[in-house]
Design a protein that fits this description.
Blueprint lengths: L8 H13 L15 H17 L4 E7 L3 H7 L5 E6 L3 E2 L4 E2 L8 E10 L10 H6 L1 E11 L10 H6 L6 E4 L15 E6 L2 E7 L7 H14 L9 E6 L4 E2 L5 E6 L3 E7 L4
Parallel strand pairs: 1-10, 3-7, 4-13
Antiparallel strand pairs: 1-2, 5-6, 5-10, 5-11, 6-7, 8-9, 8-12, 12-13
Amino acid sequence: MSASSFDPLPAARRLAEAARTGAPCPPLRDDPGLGDIASAYAVQEAGIAAALDAGRVIVGRKIGLTARSVQAQLGVEQPDYGALLDDMAVDDGATIAAGCLLQPKVEAEIAFVLDRDLPSPGTTLGEAARAVAYALPAIEIVDSRIADWNISIVDTIADNASSGLFVLGGAPRRIDALDLRLCGMVLEQDGEGVSFGCGAACLGNPLVALAWLARTMARTSRPLRAGEVILSGALGAMTPMAPGAHYAAHINGLGSVRVRLEASA
């Protein structure tokens, strides 16, 4: 099947049905025509288009696969990206309802909020840094509509980069006095550390990830815009999210952010 004849809608609908019913679907990677990254992004775009038609709004982007070890595991040499929609945002300290996610896992990240557009496919690290209004500590709750997290690069891209929900801390910080590479991170579950890392775990520097995303989105004619939230990538290993547990991410220089998953009924 040629790329031009590939129809992404059936795969996008399978993912949407999995999210609606709470029943994960088998991997997509063996679907006819869904054999490369370009077709996987076509499925992602079809799913996002359906979400926008239903009244949801894009509020930013997320970067995934920023750890070199994870890239090697999936056989790729660059990150991926997905869209953040308005109903994915969760307030700092809130409790997430049980059952609204399928297979949630939690990770700590640095989030950027932009105060200018980044329209150039040649965006430099300096230009990306100047576009940041402020940074926040963030918890991303990743999820997969694919059964048992049995994913390849094609599966996760098609599934909106395994997006779920995100939580931003409430104390914005300017980045001009921070060395983001050295911002240490501790992610706690019920007060016990379960993941540790620092900014350097994210492509060596979260700003490198932001510049990569800016160039990539400009090439797809969907440039990053002022006001958008960018989740720059995990600072440490993700951990399964346990019902009833409280999570707190502490990032040096940026503060803390918290969330809880409601106990199962």
